[in-house]
Amino acid sequence: MSEHKTFYITTPIYYPSDKLHIGHSYTTVACDALARFKRMQGYDVMFLTGTDEHGQKIQDKAADAGVTPKEYVDKIVATVKDLWKLLDVSYDRFIRTTDDYHMESCQKIFTKLYEQGDIYKGEYIGHYCKPCESFWTDSQLVDGKCPDCGREVYDAHEEAYFFKTSKYADRLLKLYEENPQFIQPESRKNEMIAFIKQGLQDTCVSRTSVKWGIPVPFDPKHTMYVWVDALSNYISALGYGNEKYHDYDKFWPADLHMVGKEILRFHTILWPAMLMALDLPLPKRVFGHGWLLMNGGKMSKSVGNVVDPVILCDRYGVDAIRYFLLREIPFGNDGMFTNEALITRINSDLANDLGNLLSRTVAMCEKYFGGTVHNVAGTEAIDTELETMVNELTAKVTADMDSLTIPQALMEIFAVIQRANKYIDETAPWALAKDEANKARLESVLYHLCEALRVCGILLNAYLPTTAPKMMEQLGLDASALDLTKTTYGVQETYTVHKGEALFPRIDVAKEIAHLKEEDEKRKAAAEASNKAKAEAEKKAAAPAEESTVDFTHEEEIDFDTFCKVELRVAEVRACENLKESKKLLHLTVFDGERERCILSGIAKWFKPEDLIGKKIGIVCNLAPRPMMKGKYVSEGMIFAADTADGGCSIAFYGDDTPVGSRIH
């Protein structure tokens, strides 16, 4: 393969409003398998993923959490990167829409489109779906709700900039007609054509009511609408409009945008229209895959049916989860996640078929030939059949990967694995071993099995990157044997095998299903409790305010200079104990950054010593020492505490990242 042959593949950039679930993992693992396979073919691959971090939903989530939007997304993005590392995702670049270089590119794109007349200022009157970050007209709503997600919308009326999407309607229809591969699967293309023909509206591309986003450079009271920001990532990540990277000319246009079907419209209408306006090449293919459903519905944290891929990987192994995602879901259609389906796939395909074939083959090589077998030609029709299947396998898998039918590619590989298992039963090596005259035949049989395993291992490397090297190791080969140019039967002349651990231990189905069902019930119960607490909080917030029980008796007014004499600092509680002489007081030893001091506080009724030790609290530092308990103790300060509505007490604790001794203002 010549060095200039490139392949650019992208996942959608994920919205970090919460931790990602198994559905997000499905998209990314599929892209990873494609990227790995293209690398095996000799392509220079750019595999891009990332996070879409702006918009109203993030702004609201951060406000609810009491942090800035950037602080909120930073924590979620860290979990995303950890998940991709766990799942062995071999991305080449990770973009965040909060990255400076991306923001620079977006502002240049927006300005260019405005200056050439493709973006204009107007007024938006309609509806907005916050979960989808989508604007809708009355006619587009379904039963008064968002046509994409079915949730409530709210009325929106504000000054906004618009992109002339309608200007490109005819060009988009022509694009679909002349490039039938542009939108896949075919059924999705028909949906886009129908959407355009019903009357394509110009797209609202800015907000004035949402501040968390990229400012419009020539009108900073406007923030770029999240989809213009998000879609531009595919070229900004290559260096378009910035000096961070210089890969645009090498990799654009993208060979494949992989997205969920719910955002296909943005990628096949708005995105190509933007590129047409910028006079840039269009991506070659956009694939809108289906959803991974659970109990017939889309995964939702509020329903409690979200499946955590980290838990599954820890329990069953990363490659088992990768295999299930790639094999079980019909590519392009919705797929169902059930615990039973997962366990069945692991047991039948990975433990019984693949794992059993390897362990049986290695064990027989060691038992009958001391571990070393050589290339001995086959003499029977079943030998030729297996050899032919091995030799045809790479072409079949390549065709499936090119057509994005990933489950079919795995089916082809496992057809050879299943045939090899049947080959063992047909040749009965244990029977051949009883007669020395059959030694050549026995060696030929075992060599055929080793070759089938070797070629399947090479091809499985794109899907099971941890398992394939383990297979090679047991066959006595190293990682260099995972070479797609060496998938012809007979390339490896000799094997010296080494028995290893089972690739995929068999799972006790009944016991495991019971465990998973119990975990599912816990998850649902937690979701129901959370929803109930949220509903009660909203009900309370909406209820008329109760008459306050707070004592508003005021102290004598002091001037600012007097107040400034009070020294307030953060201190760490190093020791705390109850006093024998008082049921009311706690004896605290606190460190204020310079020295330890004793403080007696009347909070023993509400706090135990272990509740406070190691915590950071606020104290008054320059209060004159006060003898207490008839002079037995001297309290050198006062801690911050507040009365609660139920007659209790609350203390303000400071985070671990707050330095001891910090001034409180």
UniProtKB/TrEMBL annotation:
Cofactor binding, per record: Binds 1 zinc ion per subunit.
Motif ('HIGH' region): 14-24
Example GO biological process: methionyl-tRNA aminoacylation
EC number(s) stated in the UniProt entry for this protein: 6.1.1.10
Cofactors, names only: Zn(2+)
Chain sites annotated for binding Zn(2+): 129, 132, 146, 149
GO cellular component, one term: cytoplasm
A single MF term (Gene Ontology): ATP binding
Domain TRNA-binding: 562-665
Keywords: Aminoacyl-tRNA synthetase, ATP-binding, Cytoplasm, Ligase, Metal-binding, Nucleotide-binding, Protein biosynthesis, RNA-binding, tRNA-binding, Zinc
Statement: the UniProt record of this protein carries the keyword Cytoplasm: yes
Localization per record: Cytoplasm
Biological role: Is required not only for elongation of protein synthesis but also for the initiation of all mRNA translation through initiator tRNA(fMet) aminoacylation.
Subunit structure: Homodimer.
Name of the featured protein: Methionine--tRNA ligase
Species of origin: Faecalibacterium taiwanense
